[in-house]
Design goal:
homodimer, alpha/beta, six-stranded mixed β-sheet, 9 helices, 26% strand
Chain lengths: 248, 248
C-alpha cells in the first residue's frame, strides 16, 4: 500500500454497463488522486438500481478513506443517486434551500424552475453542497462520500474544487522505463527488483509497437530516491542481458 | 431487468486504478453481451492484491450468471489472477499439461520455455482452457468464471471465442432519439413514457454539441415493437412541445 489514505470511485449508470458510453471519469480521478497522495483502491460500476447503489456505497465508505460517486444527479427519472445516498446513510432527503436558490438564480426566472429541475435541489440531510461552476446544479458531500455529476466536464470541475480539501499523503511518484523485449524475458529480473524494494509498486505492461514486442515497467512510490535506485538496479540487469531500451 | 441472464466484469490491475491505462475491455465486453442477451449488471476494478481479488470473485460469481475477469495472467510477479481464482474456488493450482504443450509449441524450443513463461501454464484444478489465438498463453474457465487476458487484442480474441458458448437471452435491442433541448425539459414526458413501458430501460443522457444543449434518449428492451411504441409515444409529446429533434 503506497499511501495509507485510500479511495474508491463508484460510477453509477446503466450507460457504462450497456457499452453506450466509454467511462472517462475514473481515469481523470485516478490520476489526480495519485498527485494528492491518495491511492485509488477500487472502482465499481453499478446500475441505476437502488439496492445496488446503496450496497456499494455502504461497502465502500466503510472500507476506504474517501468515496467519489459519479452520475445520476440530474433531473430525470433515472437519476436516483441522491435518494440512494440518503438511504445508505439513513437520513431524510428534501429540497436544500441553498441549492434551490442556486438553481433559481441559474435559470433566472422562478417559473423556469420546473418540478424536474427542482429535483436537482434534493439533497440528503446533513450533506454539504459541492460547487458546480459549469451548470450550477450542485453535488454534495456527506461523511466521506462525495457525490459528483456524470458529465465529464462537470465532474472534473466539481472534483477539482474538492480535491484541495482532502487530506492526502505525500504525492505518489512514478517513473516508467521501456524495453523492446517480451515481458516474459524481463520477469525474473523484475521479480528480484520487486523483492528488493518492497515499498514500491512495480508493474509490468506488455505492448506491441513499431513491429516489436516490448514491455513498460512502472516504478511507483512516495520516495524519489528509492524509485531511482530500483530503476537503476533493474537497468543494470537489463544492460547485462543486452536488452534494448525504448522511448516512453 | 431486461434479461434474466446477468454478468459482471472484474478488471484486475493497478494500471487502471493509477490512471496509467484507460480501460477499454469493459466497453468491448458490455456491447457484445447486449447482443447475446446478457445484461452486464456490475463491473469492478480491483488491485493486484490477493484478498481483494478473491473477495470480488466470490461475491460476483455467487450473484451473477457469468463473471469475466481481465488482466493478471501474464508471466510477471504482479500476475496473480490464476492463484487468486484457485483460492476463491478452494482448489489447487499447478502446471496444466495441455497449457504447457501450447506454450512449448508457441516458443518452438523447450529451452525457451523459461520458468517465468511456464507460470502462464499454471491453471487451477478443474478449470478448462480458453484459446488464445493471438499469443498462445491460454485463459481458462472455472465454474461460471472466465479468466481472460488484459491486453485488449488478446482479451477480445478470447472473449469472442467463448461468447458463442454462453447461454444468453433474446438480444437486447436499443434505439436512440436525440432532441436539442435540455434534459430537464424532457424529464416529465420521459418519466410518463417510462411508467407506461415498465419492461423497457429508458435512459437520458445530456450533451452539449454544435453550440446547443441536447439530450440523447435511449430505449432498450428485448421487444422491437415495444421500443417503437415507446419511442413514438415520446415523440408525439416532444412534437407537441415543439422540441427540435437531433441526428444521433
Amino acid at each position: 500500500m503506497i499511501s495509507p489514505i485510500s479511495a474508491a470511485v463508484l460510477v453509477i449508470g446503466n450507460e457504462i454497463l450497456t457499452g453506450r458510453t466509454q467511462d472517462v471519469n475514473l481515469n481523470y480521478i485516478a490520476k489526480k488522486l495519485m498527485g494528492a497522495g491518495i491511492h485509488l483502491a477500487e472502482a465499481r460500476i453499478v446500475r441505476d438500481i437502488e439496492a445496488d447503489v446503496v450496497a456499494a456505497v455502504n461497502e465502500c465508505r466503510a472500507r476506504y478513506s474517501y468515496v467519489f460517486t459519479t452520475g445520476g444527479i440530474g433531473p430525470t427519472h433515472d437519476d436516483i443517486t441522491a435518494d440512494c445516498i440518503a438511504k445508505a446513510f439513513g437520513v431524510s432527503i428534501g429540497i436544500h434551500e441553498t441549492a434551490r436558490q442556486i438553481l433559481e438564480k441559474h435559470y433566472g426566472d422562478p417559473a423556469m424552475l420546473t418540478e424536474a429541475r427542482l429535483r436537482m435541489a434534493r439533497i440528503p440531510a446533513t450533506a454539504t453542497l459541492i460547487d458546480n461552476p459549469v451548470s450550477a446544479a450542485p453535488g454534495f458531500r456527506i461523511g466521506n462520500v462525495f457525490v459528483l455529476a456524470g458529465v465529464p466536464s462537470i465532474m472534473q470541475a466539481m472534483f477539482d474544487g474538492v480535491l484541495p480539501n482532502l487530506q492526502g499523503g505525500p504525492p505518489i511518484l512514478s517513473k516508467t522505463i521501456g524495453c523492446y523485449v517480451p515481458e516474459s524475458l524481463i520477469a525474473d529480473d523484475l521479480r528480484k527488483t520487486a523483492e528488493n524494494f518492497p515499498d514500491l509498486d512495480i508493474g509490468s505492461y506488455p505492448y506491441f509497437r513499431n513491429g516489436k514486442h516490448g514491455t513498460s515497467l512502472v516504478f511507483r512510490g512516495t520516495k524519489a530516491d528509492e524509485i531511482d535506485q530500483a530503476l537503476a538496479a533493474f537497468s543494470v540487469a537489463a544492460v547485462q542481458r543486452g536488452f534494448e531500451f525504448a522511448e516512453e
